[in-house]
Amino acid sequence: MLSTLRSIVQELNGINNLQDALDTIAARVQTAMHTEVCSVYLYDDKSGCYVLKATEGLYKSAVGQVRIAPSEGLVGLVGTREEPINLEDAQKHPRNRYFPETGEERFGSFLGVPIIHHRRVLGVIVVQETQNSRRFDEGEEAFLVTISAQLAGVIAHSEATGAIGGISISGDQARDVAFSGVAGAQGVAIGTGVVVFPPADLDSVPDKRCEDVDAEIERFRAAVSAVRDDVEQVGERLAPQLRPEEQALFEVYLRMLHDHALPGEVENRIREGLWAPGSLKAVVNQYVRHFEMMGDHYLRERAVDIRDLGRRLLSHLQEGESETPEYPERTILVSDELTPAMLGEVPQGQLAGLVSVRGSGNSHVAILARAMGVPTVMGLVDIPVAQLDGRELIVDGYEGQIFASPSTELKAFFESIIEEEQELVKGLEELRDKPCETLDGHRIPLFVNTGLITDVVRSLSHGAEGIGLYRTEVPFMINERFPSEQEQKAYYREQLEAFAPAEVTMRTLDIGGDKALTYFPIVEENPFLGWRGIRVTLDHPEVFLVQIRAMIKASEGLDNLRIMLPMISNVSEIEEAQHLIYRAWHEVRDEGYQLAMPQVGVMIEIPAAVYQVREIAARVDFVSVGSNDLTQYLLAVDRNNPRVASLYHSYHPAVLQALCQVAQDCHDVGKPVSICGELAGDPGGAILLLAMGYDALSMNASNLPRIKSVIRGIDMDMARGLLAEVLTLDSPHVIRSCVELALRKAGIGRFIRPERSGSGVRELAASRE
Ligand code: PEP
Ligand code: MG
Hints:
The chain is built from 26 helices and 23 strands. By secondary structure, the chain is α/β, with parallel strands linked by helices. Residues 566, 605, 626, 628-629 line the site of magnesium ion (MG).
């Protein structure tokens, strides 16, 4: 059964057309299970019925004709119960219903399994027999459940592909279908999708049309000839070291590159109008699946060679491509995995929105997007990315949804939200030079989190009082090698100068987790629990020392630098880092610089540090809480994983308790404590942190004006009352509702994300919010 299952699954993955996939399933399952009938019913949203879509054993004329309501028959019962139903004699079941069009009255035994994707029932798969005495055994039931799970993915993908083009699974028009992911950065954007992808990665190549077929074929032929030359040269060079059977591999490669084989098929696709990289991807994938299905181990392994060949051809094709795609006026950048470098390539003023398949609301690229004020949706795991290129898209960064091919009504609805946002922002500009204080005069400075130099410009215009967190890894990430001491000094000087004499807190390099440097790859099973932040830099004192020296030198004449250490989990890390910082400071002074020793602080981001915060705070000048990581580690929820995004609660009672304790303990030992996680930029979060006694809040520049407005609209009694109330609650959802209610009561409800009602939107993927 296992090998049958594998070959059916592989065959299924190779089929692009939904009807072909359903017909194949019906036929293969019927044969594999030796049953008389196998049928697939899909749920049709419009009619609210299960429609017979494919069958082996029932009358073919019934396909598309038989419609079963959820309250009808055994198929309806399987769908409603969302579990398999296995009956020895279906005729005796009270829900059994006879559909004359199918001829199924002859059948007795019945096994029906729901087809479920992300908690949504997409259909039902059924096998039937005439012999009343036969009951499908456990193995058969498990087989059908496994097939159904695979089929669910294929159906969902096909549904999503159709919906992007405005067609539903039943072939009707599908307008305003929402694809749900996770909110990345607030705001709404309407624009045109531009799919960007990493080089030489076949899987992420989008399916674009080509304008000039002949030129595209020429381009492809040039790539084939270049790869053929490469293979020949490598083969000749290695010949003396290889055994004949190994040399034969090069022959295989060259044969595959023969005109009639792979290249011929790719050219056929190009003639159908697909561009060369997309045609290559389709043909290579088809070959790979074909090889993977082979029984022979040696031949199965050849799939690897095909993939390798495909990658080589793609890489040559990409050499010929213009370096940068064309970016329309309002670009919605779409990628399997967005990187800061991809964002940086869009010309200034043209980046309207971001869409990423991977990552979640607290991934670093989402944080960067928030800092830039670009509406973003992350974790759109079920979306066929390649189809979004060139399409009109709406990005709803409040709900974490996108829409392709929107109706005029839906566009008008979102345009009105954009206008409202612009009005709100205009109203906040006048607050720029006003202090951040409550109605009863409690003052709390608002700092900004920065990474790019554009953040600095925005922060100044938004009235930030200093930098609470400069993420130094950002300039490292947009470089192609470690920046030199001189280069780093120039980056840091810009930040320090812009805010002097106000303080600028620079965090030492915090890489690892979801922050990768292309030139310093860290590959780990469990990156968020691995080599991250201070752990990396203490292991590489040469990198750490250069960075500290650059920071210290950059502060000459300004003396507004504070150095902050990320990911501290024990006191010896602080002592080791302090030792290196002293060393760097002495070295710089020995070079003739006249500088005061900068203040050194730490981030509290790991639960262990919460319990040791007194010992930690006693050793440093200041403490800042990184609530993004603290939340992920307290709740054991990967901040980058959309599958568990709904479990990442900043208002979780455990998180709030930890934040209270850190503030209390730092003050008990006489050290200032601030917060630089995203919670500080959340209106409700800011009020709670104020009540907990935090000395400063640091957030992205986009959120700063609204937080100032929120704090200027409340008094300390309101903040303390709200904190006391939420600390008695045990559910993050109830806490959120309680906080939102309090904001509305205080007349500052306009800062809560807008409600969308009555817009006729249908959700395709289960919302993870
Ligand atoms: C945090 O973890 O809260 C933080 C501010 O650091 P980062 O988001 O860069 O990990
Ligand atoms: Mg962190």
